Amino acid sequence: xxxxxxxxxxxxxxxxxxxxxxxxxxxxxxxxxxxxxxxxxxxxxxxxxxxxxxxxxxxxxxxxxxxxxxxxxxxxxxxxxxxxxxxxxxxxxxxxxxxxxxxxxxxxxxxxxxxxxxxxxxxxxxxxxxxxxxxxxxxxxxxxxxxxxxxxxxxxxxxxxxxxxxxxxxxxxxxxxxxxxxxxxxxxxxxxxxxxxxxxxxxxxxxxxxxxxxxxxxxxxxxxxxxxxxxxxxxxxxxxxxxxxxxxx
Length: 249
Hints:
Blueprint: E1 11-21, E2 26-33, E3 42-43, E4 46-48, H1 55-67, E5 75-80, E6 91-101, E7 113-120, H2 121-126, H3 133-150, H4 164-175, H5 181-190, E8 194-200, E9 210-214, H6 216-225, H7 236-248
């Protein structure tokens, strides 16, 4: 049997995948590393765990030190432990992810982050991120896509008042598919997740849309029970049908 000391030569780290929505596109927060390894490369906000701190404490500390973000809900997603994932030595990392409204936070890079910037998720996936951060980002993105189909977590990315069009754009950005407008509105309204504010958009010259608010009470109920939120994609025959209806009417 090997000496126990041989098993105490690994380090732990945390990496945070912070998703945000700017009203049009799904974003992820990245930092540009100022120090080696992977100096000048884009990476997820992450660092080693101190010997005297727990994982969640470390995740929050790292996020604050590198980006200035605090009081962000973080959910543990997956552990990455490939032997060669870190060039310095054996480092096992725990990935966390979160959903935030970009407008609620001011990003301030510090420590070994020379920059902190929101990137389109699609663009970030095409970058050569540091370490195995492409794998971590993809895993957390897949987790997000699964969640929005089962739970109404997408509302965490919206302002207090929003239009149905903006809500649909959010789900299309996350699911990366075109959703049928009529089916989407029928589905979401039938769930009674929205409160009709009896208000219209301001500053919109033509056909301002109605504003809605998220019903937090029903949200908590759905969070506890879970629900199916399967959305149908927009199909060519649906588009042809709608054109015919417009012509006939």
